[in-house]
Design a protein that fits this description.
The protein contains 1 helix and 12 strands, in the order ββββββββαββββ. The protein has 157 residues and is mainly β. Strand 9 and strand 10 form a beta hairpin. The longest helix is centred in the middle third of the chain and has 10 residues. 20% of the residues are buried.
């Protein structure tokens, strides 16, 4: 055991952006070393990160520690809001919600630090529409055996 690390002088909360890819497009996961991955995810030929969008200040990530008889796991949840109700987004979200499709998500905080959600677990996508707010509330959610590690690599689109 050690002391907690000294805190940063400037540490704003919140997230700025995210990227995602379906897990069937990933051929190799990097190793996890002390809370960070040791290299980029390896994709199938032609696969690349997809760009997500959430309205300002709506993008959030939570990771709740859960204890079970079989050990510790983490409930991971990246949530946000997407404005409007166009046919294109409705079709995309329906495709993304299909049973059996899971995702890896890299989310970026306001200082540019990146973490990888879905490492050692499956994230499912869902989106719920509200006509009153005229927007979707979406989430990438699942259970993982590891905390979301740091992902300090350039996102190639």
């Amino acid at each position: 055991m050690k002391n907690f690390p000294k805190r940063s002088i400037f540490n704003p909360g919140g997230l700025g952006s995210f990227y995602f890819i379906s897990s069937d497009q990933v051929v190799k996961l990097p190793r996890l070393i002390k809370g960070r991955v040791d290299c980029v995810l390896e994709f199938k030929p032609g696969a690349h990160w997809l760009i997500g969008y959430a309205t300002s200040d709506s993008l959030k990530f939570s990771e709740k520690t859960q204890l079970s008889d079989h050990g510790t796991y983490y409930d991971q949840n990246l949530t946000g809001h997407y404005p409007g109700d166009g046919a294109e987004v409705q079709d995309l979200f329906s495709d993304m919600e299909q049973i059996g499709i899971t995702y890896y998500v890299v989310f970026v905080d306001l200082l540019g630090r990146q973490r990888l959600a879905g490492y050692a677990g499956d994230l499912n996508f869902s989106a719920d529409f509200s006509s009153e707010e005229k927007r979707y509330a979406f989430s990438f959610e699942g259970k993982a055996l590891e905390k979301a590690p740091l992902y300090p690599y350039i996102i190639n689109l």
